[in-house]
């Protein structure tokens, strides 16, 4: 019981290390915005093949981003990743904008270095391999992927109380890395770099401090099939105009204790969006959140004058979105002008993805207070544009 109280204390604390997600979002924005000023000087006239396979070994450690997680750092982690890559040939509008990135899927397996409390982890995710620097015989890439993962050993109130990191087997996964690819043959490259793979259940289960696996990576890439000519001609595009977007989203979540009931949340959001070169967009917007766990938490702290209206809280946010064809990658930073529940702090954040069907779009967002997940938004939206 004492250890469960420690987990509760750590779970409800936003530590300085809890800014990982915000720092990651800022890093991604800076790196990918920098591609506006890069040229494809080292770009080949044709792809190395129709598709590529990548085999990669990893070695690293589980990051103890809270003191209660230090007990999980028993040994170093190791693993293996297999990826399928499709090289960009200029057939999509976003290819040239992002220096012809590879896209693909990764299947990863990790031994998490603690067989009793963590076991192994699996991750499956689509990714984009963004070039940051192209030279004749080597290139620097930033890889970003988001998908699903599985953790073998999770928190259990009877048998595994010292795993304060994760309370569900199935989790969301976010991966990012920086790596260098060195050309060693017409179709082959060797790769080395460093990255982080993050597991989180978005508060659909407790605990949810998350598992962050930091790794050094070494791999081999080989391309197969016929080469394709890379289309470098620039086609004149219709510049997208500034417009408004609205979306509705729903969510469910848990709060401490781990075996407590499920709560429900919802979001109504509007944003003024200003596109930049049809590659990305900045925006400012308003949120209205509903979360029926807020009254429960206020009652636990013996607050007075509590009403149903305290489940609502407004938000003001700034937005940045990257567009890769029909897919959008979203990053928000917001502030609550008013909230009766003070335990989450004044600031909130979103990392999410969207799929656009012209003006209609579907979305999935992870809403957080720094690195502490609040809930996962699942929703539908509409862009009011000409």
Short précis:
By secondary structure, the protein is mainly beta. The protein has helices at 2-11, 20-33, 93-97, 294-300, and strands spanning 51-62, 77-86, 102-111, 120-134, 138-151, 170-183, 188-200, 211-224, 243-254, 262-276, 280-291, 312-324, 327-335, 347-357, 360-369, 372-384. The strands form 2 sheets. The chain has an 8-stranded antiparallel beta barrel. It has an 8-stranded antiparallel β-barrel with strand order 9-10-11-12-13-14-15-16.
Topology, element by element:
Blueprint: H1 2-11, H2 20-33, E1 51-62, E2 77-86, H3 93-97, E3 102-111, E4 120-134, E5 138-151, E6 170-183, E7 188-200, E8 211-224, E9 243-254, E10 262-276, E11 280-291, H4 294-300, E12 312-324, E13 327-335, E14 347-357, E15 360-369, E16 372-384
Antiparallel strand pairs: 1-2, 1-8, 2-3, 3-4, 4-5, 5-6, 6-7, 7-8, 9-10, 9-16, 10-11, 11-12, 12-13, 13-14, 14-15, 15-16
Order of helices and strands: HHEEHEEEEEEEEEHEEEEE
The strand order across the widest sheet is: 1-2-3-4-5-6-7-8
CATH architecture name of the largest domain: Beta Barrel
Question: What fraction of residues sit in β-strands?
Answer: over 45%
Q: Overall 3D geometry? A: flat
Q: What is the name of the CATH topology of the largest domain? A: Porin
Biggest sheet details? 8 strands, antiparallel, barrel
Q: What would you call the structural class?
A: mainly beta
Low-confidence stretches: 14-18
- Quote the average pLDDT: 88
Number of helices: 4
Explained architecture:
- The protein is built from 4 helices and 16 strands.
- The chain is mainly beta.
- The protein has an 8-stranded antiparallel beta barrel with strand order 1-2-3-4-5-6-7-8.
